[in-house]
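Deliverable D2.4 — example input (structure tokens):
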């Protein structure tokens, strides 16, 4: 997986993801947005994520964070802990960059992967696209999706096994929730991108990649603690998610995604930053709040009610009945 993104998007260059970071034990946290004042979204998500697989003790907190910091210094090892994408995906993304590529040829390439065919058909018949009649062929689906829609769909198909195909008690239990949040983050970030002056597809990629480091962290916890228990303290939760953010950015660089993607992931935890980081930060917050609200987590409804009108409109698009 390391090199195919480079062939699709051009050679990578050094990014902020390669620069030294502060220790994982003393992360620099951005202030919580005023719109979410009723709830610490990140902490609530952390505590909800593992469900019953949790404990209050902190005996292995330092060990877990030290191991994650070690992986962040050697992201190639971390990248090897997640699955690779289907071989047809890079071929299709490469074709989308070629001038004059016909819909017939794209349809032929999509048809090589039965799972991808099912995903494309399912996508175009979803409420998001609202076709006037059911779409049953690849050719009809591609006509409705368009190139940008197909690129985003392929990105989701590529990253789904990275997030959702996990082993280990904790990682396996958390995977469905993580994937759901990742999909909504990608959608929200891509929708927010034009307002921030960012590229929508890069925002989608950043949203899908954002949780890769957290997946690695959960797999590491399963290795450290065979019971897969997730420490629940606020200090551990914030340190874990900040270190996972750094790890996601460095894995994105290792995979040679477009350089702005890794930088956006790294900088989305801080106020300000480049347009793509701002779009991703909006996507992260709204997607996390959406899954917490859908799970009836206390305080989520109050936080949603505090959203500004423009963000509320975007938030409502993340409802399962809308996306």
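Example output (designed residues):
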């Amino acid at each position: 997986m390391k090199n195919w993104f480079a062939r699709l998007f051009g050679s990578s260059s050094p990014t902020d993801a390669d620069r030294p970071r502060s220790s994982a034990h003393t992360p620099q946290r951005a202030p919580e947005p005023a719109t979410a004042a009723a709830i610490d979204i990140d902490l609530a998500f952390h505590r909800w994520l593992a469900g019953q697989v949790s404990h209050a003790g902190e005996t292995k907190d330092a060990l877990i964070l030290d191991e994650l910091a070690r992986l962040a210094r050697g992201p190639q090892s971390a990248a090897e802990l997640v699955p690779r994408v289907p071989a047809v995906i890079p071929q299709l993304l490469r074709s989308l960059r070629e001038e004059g590529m016909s819909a017939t040829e794209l349809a032929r390439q999509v048809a090589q992967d039965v799972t991808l065919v099912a995903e494309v058909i399912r996508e175009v018949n979803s409420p998001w696209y609202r076709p006037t009649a059911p779409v049953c062929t690849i050719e009809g689906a591609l006509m409705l999706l368009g190139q940008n829609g197909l690129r985003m769909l392929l990105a989701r198909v590529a990253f789904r096994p990275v997030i959702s195909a996990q082993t280990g008690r904790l990682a396996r239990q958390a995977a469905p929730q993580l994937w759901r949040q990742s999909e909504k983050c990608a959608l929200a970030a891509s929708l927010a991108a034009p307002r921030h002056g960012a590229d929508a597809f890069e925002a989608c990629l950043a949203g899908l990649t954002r949780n890769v480091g957290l997946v690695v962290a959960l797999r590491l916890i399963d290795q450290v603690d065979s019971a897969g228990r997730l420490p629940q303290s606020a200090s551990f939760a914030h340190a874990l998610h900040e270190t996972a953010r750094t790890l996601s950015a460095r894995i994105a660089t290792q995979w040679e995604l477009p350089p702005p993607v890794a930088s956006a992931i790294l900088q989305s935890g801080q106020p300000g930053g480049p347009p793509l980081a701002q779009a991703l930060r909006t996507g992260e917050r709204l997607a996390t709040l959406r899954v917490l609200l859908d799970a009836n987590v206390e305080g989520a409804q109050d936080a949603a009610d505090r959203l500004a009108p423009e963000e509320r409109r975007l938030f409502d698009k993340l409802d399962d009945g809308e996306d």
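The two ends are 29 Å apart (CA to CA).
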